[in-house]
């Protein structure tokens, strides 16, 4: 199989023990795919001396510095050896009320700092059931047209699939990815939402899917390593 991306999104999970488990478990292993690990920001420093996987942030602010208590900027992530940053995750759009305009500004800040934004988007269950997935995605994608496409990834994450144990049919996943490619050609598009050891291989085998974004299933280093090695 062609080498694809596996992105581990810890969300607000994990601790120093999980950091240690990752460092030990993924040391000197030759994975068939390229792994990007996105731990919570406080743990990024602990990863600085390793080269077995790439690092990403889970969010960045749209400004490089300033009086924005609690936030993290793109240059800070870059300084801590990140090369990627997740942006516009559905949990941030929902709980932090992030708009697509804000996600665009964050993506610009990330690209200016030399990071590759991985911009998440997806439809809710109602829109999925009513066949509106492409219409919803078209609106998200339109807001990204002027970003530098040589330095950008998209993660298609149906909201109803995140953390639910359910995924769309494989043909649907492939077709949605194909659609995204027609709107933003030449960009790697990942699938996210309930990816696990039982479905990862069939999802990665889909021709229009360049990788996966994994949440819950990445929180145990050994089983996640097994999953990445399939
Ligand atoms: P999940 O999360 O794998 O737990 O569904 C994926 C994500 O939200 O990125």
Summarize the structure.
The protein has helices at 16-25, 74-79, 90-95, 100-112, 125-129, 133-142, 170-183, 200-204, 221-229, and strands at residues 5-9, 34-38, 54-57, 82-87, 116-121, 153-156, 188-192, 211-214.
List the SSEs and their pairings.
Blueprint: E1 5-9, H1 16-25, E2 34-38, E3 54-57, H2 74-79, E4 82-87, H3 90-95, H4 100-112, E5 116-121, H5 125-129, H6 133-142, E6 153-156, H7 170-183, E7 188-192, H8 200-204, E8 211-214, H9 221-229
Parallel strand pairs: 1-2, 1-8, 2-3, 3-4, 4-5, 5-6, 6-7, 7-8
Helix pairs in contact: 6-7
Bound molecules: 2-phosphoglycolic acid.
2-phosphoglycolic acid binds next to strand 8.
Overall description:
By secondary structure, this protein is of the alpha/beta class. Helix content is 34%, strand content 17%. The chain contains 9 helices and 8 strands. The protein has helices at 16-25, 74-79, 90-95, 100-112, 125-129, 133-142, 170-183, 200-204, 221-229, and strands at 5-9, 34-38, 54-57, 82-87, 116-121, 153-156, 188-192, 211-214. It has an 8-stranded parallel barrel with strand order 1-2-3-4-5-6-7-8. Helix 6 runs parallel beside helix 7 (170-183). The structure holds 2-phosphoglycolic acid (PGA). 2-phosphoglycolic acid binds next to strand 8.
């Amino acid at each position: 199989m062609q080498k694809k991306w596996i992105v581990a999104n810890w969300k607000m999970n994990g601790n120093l023990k999980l950091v240690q488990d990752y460092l030990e478990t993924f040391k000197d292993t030759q994975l068939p795919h390229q792994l990007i690990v996105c731990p919570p920001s406080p743990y990024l420093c602990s990863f600085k001396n390793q080269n077995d996987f790439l690092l990403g942030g889970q969010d960045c602010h749209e400004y490089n510095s300033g009086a924005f208590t609690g936030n993290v900027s793109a240059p800070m992530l870059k300084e801590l050896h990140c090369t990627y940053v997740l942006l516009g995750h559905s949990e941030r759009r929902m709980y932090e009320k992030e708009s697509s305009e804000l996600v665009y500004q964050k993506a610009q800040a990330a690209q200016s700092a030399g990071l590759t934004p991985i911009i998440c988007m997806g439809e809710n269950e109602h829109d999925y059931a009513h066949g509106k997935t492409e219409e919803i995605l078209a609106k998200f994608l339109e807001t990204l047209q002027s970003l530098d496409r040589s330095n950008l990834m998209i993660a298609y994450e149906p909201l109803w699939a995140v953390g639910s144990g359910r995924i769309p049919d494989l043909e649907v996943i492939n077709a949605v990815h194909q659609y995204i490619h027609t709107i933003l050609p030449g960009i790697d598009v990942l699938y996210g939402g309930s990816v696990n050891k039982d479905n990862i291989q069939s999802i990665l085998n889909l021709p229009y899917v360049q990788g996966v974004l994994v949440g819950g299933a990445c929180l145990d280093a050994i089983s996640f390593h097994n999953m990445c090695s399939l």
